[in-house]
Specification:
By secondary structure, the chain is mainly alpha-helical. Helix content is about 60%, strand content about 0%. The longest helix is centred in the middle third of the chain and has 27 residues, at about 170-200.
């Protein structure tokens, strides 16, 4: 798989980054221009999708796979953590533990705070609806802000400044679009994606190949909405963390030649959530042990 490890250039990465940032400005402008509560909610959801894309870029930077420059990845990761209210150093530490101790709530710092959401239990409609109706996902997926961390302080100052500017300019629809995107829709997306990635599979006794799942959506619009960075191949990411996202499709094609990998459900379907295997076969050849 290492021959697929070809991160994009800094130029291409910068173009993607600019597209995401411009998209947020455009969505806020459209929300203000339409002057309607319904469209405000719609544009807030789309803004959250864009923020999720930026969040995914931070994730790629933490793996040094967003671009072919380590220093560029580090700078972009730190920069994007400001509007996302994340600390890049803490994020990398927590995410590293997630890969090293997947399935172990005690050692996985990324999932430790979400243990009460029971991602280790089979997913049921009633439990998911309870989390949604009671807004539990907001508590577990909204950033834990600490004024001792500079990125959090800068992030809060950034949003206070934007909020004040929008309020003074009487751009209330744009302001509420940003608030709803960050406070409601982005936590919701994070919650849903964690269910898709690990729901019902988060168990220490499982082999690595059974602790994550792919959820490949073929419709390009739906894929962009739920997986803005083509990260619907989450199993591949855990097997080969160093692979850039644009290589996931090719990696999937190669892995389908492996009988253990090929027997799994890979495409977006409700049946996927019932595909929990409580056996421990050998790893897919060449994957991360």
């Amino acid at each position: 798989m290492k021959h697929l490890c070809t991160p994009q250039s800094m130029m291409k990465g910068s173009l993607f980054l600019a597209a995401y940032l411009i998209s947020i400005v455009v969505l806020l402008a459209l929300a203000q221009a339409t002057h309607h509560s319904f469209t405000t909610v719609v544009f807030a959801a789309l803004t959250a999708v864009t923020l999720k894309g930026l969040n995914n870029i931070v994730h790629e930077c933490s793996h040094n796979s967003f671009s072919d420059s380590h220093s560029y990845n580090d700078r972009v990761g730190k920069l994007l953590c400001i509007p996302l209210l994340i600390n890049f150093v803490a994020y990398k530490k927590e995410h590293r533990s997630h890969h090293m101790h997947l399935g172990n709530y005690a050692l996985d710092d990324d999932f430790k705070l979400r243990q009460n959401l029971d991602h280790n239990r089979p997913i049921t409609w009633s439990r998911a609806l309870h989390d949604l109706i009671m807004l539990r996902f907001v508590w577990f997926y909204f950033p834990r802000i600490s004024m001792k961390k500079p990125s959090h302080s800068f992030g809060l100052a950034f949003y206070v400044g934007i909020g004040a500017a929008l309020y003074i300019a009487e751009m209330n629809y744009a302001m509420w679009t940003l608030i709803l995107a960050h406070a409601a829709f982005l936590p919701l997306l994070r919650y849903l994606i964690d269910i898709v990635d690990h729901g019902g599979l988060y168990a220490i006794e499982l082999d690595e190949i059974y602790k994550s799942r792919n959820f490949i959506i073929h419709n390009p619009v739906l894929r962009t909405l739920f997986f803005p960075r083509n990260d619907c191949y989450h199993l591949i990411h855990h097997l080969y963390p160093y692979l850039p996202v644009h290589c996931f499709g090719k990696a999937h094609e190669l892995l389908m030649e492996d009988p253990v990998y090929a027997q799994l459900l890979h495409h977006a379907s409700l049946k996927t959530f019932g595909n929990r295997v409580m056996i421990e076969p050998k790893h897919v050849e060449g994957s991360k042990p």
